[in-house]
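Lab notes, practical 5.
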Amino acid sequence: MSSYTTRSWVTIGLFGALWGAVEIVLGSYLHLILPPQADTFLIGVLLGGIGVAVALTGRHFASNRGSVFFISVVTALLKLLSPGGIKIGPLVAILAEGVLMEAVLWVASTRWTFLLGGALAIAWNLPHKFIMMRLLFGKGFTQVFTKMVQDGSQTLGLDVSAAWLILAVLLLIRLSVGAISGWSAWKLGGAVARRLGR
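Output from the prediction step:
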């Protein structure tokens, strides 16, 4: 913590606010225009992908260990101000994404850890559904599994009988989007940082 400067905290606040704006503004808009089944997959992946890219880009400008996690904390606090009210699920998801990205970056800050951190952060959305639905609503594995397969079936156009294939495809898409977000953050953040001489 001693290595953090005022500039580091300002940068963390800036990128946390940017991610928070994406969650609140774009999130509210997507919930209005997309069908209900999209909540299970599409909205989470879109918001998560952008959020991961923002947080990991921020790492280029606040390179301290823990900075990505603190960016997620700022985002979660801003999410409390969402017009939709306080929802525990999204707050936990944002913080978990920050923890996963930070855990990988704690080892090293390279292109590959950016990709892996992004992939794990977005992939978290899958087990997150099972955990939060159990904790908040008391729903069992089978209920959540069935609902996820049904929504995934509509989204992907696959028959519900291919349940495990549906979940595998959904997971693969999440991993891919997360990796792309991590790669984008590495390239974009690195390019801007070099241009600014950082």
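Observations recorded by the TA: Helices lie at 6-33, 42-61, 67-79, 88-107, 111-123, 125-137, 141-156, 163-195. The chain is about 80% helix and 0% strand.
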